[in-house]
Write a structure and sequence with these properties.
With 406 residues, the protein is an alpha+beta fold. It has 15 helices and eleven strands. The protein folds into two domains: 202 residues, 2-Layer Sandwich (Cytochrome Bc1 Complex, Chain A, domain 1); 179 residues, Cytochrome Bc1 Complex, Chain A, domain 1 (2-Layer Sandwich), CATH 3.30.830. The chain has a six-stranded mixed beta sheet, with helices on both faces. A five-stranded mixed beta sheet has the order 7-11-8-10-9, sandwiched between helices. Helix 9 crosses helix 15, helix 10 packs antiparallel against helix 11 and helix 11 packs across helix 15.
Length: 406
């Protein structure tokens, strides 16, 4: 994979992948998210993601929102537990316009008080809408079970009460404490010459004062597994089973991604989908997820089913997990699992927006971007014995928690 990198004197890193296209993609990814919030800041990272669009020192909110829309581009943002990203899609002639806008809203937003008041109401509506979706809400409640009394276990949106207490000064304090220049990456995928990319990056980001990270994130204290059932009075029951898993630097994380894909990944032939939906018809939606974080990770299995099928569904899930712990994959099974994962990675890389975001995150966390060929080699090197060992490390039923919405 051909890409070019440059580091500004303030620590902001630039990475660019040349791509001949009329359309380009760029974004600023920041290694700061909801897990970096103090207790009185719950919801702050997501709130900032909303209000950075509400006006800068040189643009009103309307001009921020119209800057790319007027030329057919798009501006967007997202927040996770550990990162915040502001990104754009643009026509190739509008690269500088896009970089200028992202720099402006990242570093020069002024957060007008009247805009903060309006946006708080918007996010309260978002929180209430989320509460009406048990299939989404259960993931947050489950992570709170795994990480009680730690910011990584709290939901990203915050609470209406906490949200309403935030001030402009609180926003600036959070950004000063968490928006570290050595923890920022500006990434682009497009037809720009890299010399121009660097020149523009120096112009729009080079003047930003250096603010390197000094302190590491808080460590995670392991807690005892829990089994909880909550009456939500829903038509369908929702179930999550899982526990903590490898962090993002663990050498076996790729093996766990392979196991997760085999067990309950996006393929319709995943083991859980075949066992619960195709064979028995007792679950419409079932999936497994592995999310690595700094110092920890989460592996979970989610399914929705009729109340009368809860116990049966849980038994089948544990049967599939036990099979991976106790039985090695055959040569053909292993070959098919690897080929499927490699195919999914290749197809995902054809989505240039996703590619840009993946490159940015890889460079942010690992200071490198692996080629598809290298990733394939790493996948091919995983043996059936490796997967069985990983399954025994990760799929231990005695270490699993369970949450059920009735």
């Amino acid at each position: 994979m051909e890409f070019y990198t440059h580091t500004l004197e303030n620590g902001i890193r630039i990475i660019h992948k040349p791509e001949k296209s009329e359309v380009g993609y760029c974004g600023m990814i920041i290694n700061a998210g909801s897990r970096d919030e103090k207790e009185h800041e719950h919801g702050m990272a997501h709130f900032i993601e909303h209000v950075v669009f509400k006006g800068t020192k040189k643009r009103r909110a309307y001009h921020v929102l119209s800057r790319l829309d007027d030329v057919g581009g798009e501006l967007n943002a997202y927040t996770t537990k550990e990162e915040t990203c502001i990104y754009a899609t643009y026509l190739k002639d509008d690269y500088e316009r896009s970089m200028d806008l992202i720099a402006d809203i990242t570093f020069h937003s002024i957060f007008p008080e009247k805009e903060l008041i309006k946006e708080k109401e918007v996010i309260v509506d978002e929180i209430n809408s989320y509460k009406d979706s048990p299939a989404e809400l259960i993931f947050d409640d489950f992570e709170e079970l795994l990480y009680p009394n730690h910011a990584i276990g709290r939901n990203i949106l915050g609470t209406p009460e906490m949200l309403k207490s935030f001030t402009r000064e609180d926003i600036f304090t959070f950004m000063k404490n968490n928006y570290h220049t050595d923890q920022m990456v500006f990434c682009s995928v497009g037809s720009e010459d890299f010399k121009r990319v660097v020149r523009l990056a120096e112009k729009y980001f080079g003047h930003i004062q250096s603010n390197p990270r000094i302190n590491k994130r808080d460590s995670i204290i392991k807690t005892s597994p829990q089994n909880i059932t909550i009456d939500k009075d829903t038509y369908q029951s929702h179930i999550i089973i899982g526990g903590t898993a490898f962090d993002y630097k663990h050498p076996n994380r790729l093996g766990l991604h392979l196991l997760n894909n085999l067990l309950g990944g996006p393929g319709m032939n995943s083991r859980l989908n075949m066992s619960l939906r195709e064979k028995r018809g007792i679950a419409y939606n079932i999936e497994s997820t592995y999310t690595p974080f700094y110092g920890t990770g989460v592996f979970s299995i989610y399914l929705g089913t009729d109340k009368k099928n809860i116990d049966k569904s849980i038994r089948i899930v544990h049967k599939e997990l036990a099979d991976l712990r106790n039985n090695k994959l055959g040569a053909m099974q292993l070959h098919k699992a690897k080929r499927q994962l490699k195919g999914q990675i290749a197809i995902s890389s054809e989505n240039k927006e996703s590619l840009m975001l993946n490159i940015a995150k890889s460079y942010l966390l690992y200071n490198k971007v692996d080629s598809l060929e290298y990733i394939y080699e790493k996948i091919d090197a995983i043996s059936a014995s490796d997967l069985m060992e990983i399954a025994n490390q990760t799929f231990n039923p005695d270490q699993f928690s369970q949450l059920v919405y009735l």
